[in-house]
Design brief:
Elements (H helix, E strand, L loop, with lengths): L7 E4 L8 H15 L6 H18 L5 H16 L5 H8 L11 H8 L4 E6 L3 H8 L8 E4 H4 L7 H13 L6 E5 L2 H10 L3 E5 L22 E3 L2 H12 L1
Parallel strand pairs: 1-2, 1-4, 2-3, 4-5, 5-6
Helix pairs in contact: 1-2, 2-3, 3-4, 5-10
Length: 239
Amino acid sequence: MNLADYDVLSFDCYGTLIDWETGIAAVLAPWAREVGLELSDEELLVAYADNEARVAREMPTALYSVVLAEAFRRTGETLGRPVSEQWARRLGESVPEWPAFPDSAEALALLARDYRLVIVSNVHREGFAGSNKRLGVEFDRIITAEDVGAYKPAPNHFEALDSALREMGVPRERLVHVAQSLFHDHVPAKRHGLRSVWINRRHDRPGWGATPEPAAEYSYNLEFPDLISFARAARQAKG
């Protein structure tokens, strides 16, 4: 796969550009201490992961802030502890506070020299607007769960991406999807016939963290441990 052959990069945001695990754990950890749970951040994220995926599947048109709050309540049920409305709301409203990965802004600025950039994200518009301030680039298109009425791995984002490419006048074969989550992104990207790059942010840690283990077939064409490694390889390919 030659990265010089592509003109558009579509990105997952949370887990790829924004460190959602740190953001979620920043709320789950103090709640756990308050209710008397002695669990690590990783254990809390694992307990949370399937609950968010289930809520997103059951409530496809809900804003992500609502999905987060309900997933937190269900995580409390899973762990046998109550989650107050204050705590649920705190997680739901926390998206704009989640940090970007340290390399995201630099890598995106480098990639923007040679590619058009598109966001394909499980988020609501208001939440992404806060995150976008941390990323430092202007995206050609922003496709959110609020826009398409569903959450990945449902196909809606990728169908909307096809429409965006037509509007941009770019052939589908000139696009690469870039993402961390095998479950949310690489499974549906494969089904949709897209080439993809895995940004393996958890390469130095075992397990799946806040992302469910993929239960369907997936593939990717290239793998990098972080975004800046990918950006430098892409820049070199473009010459």
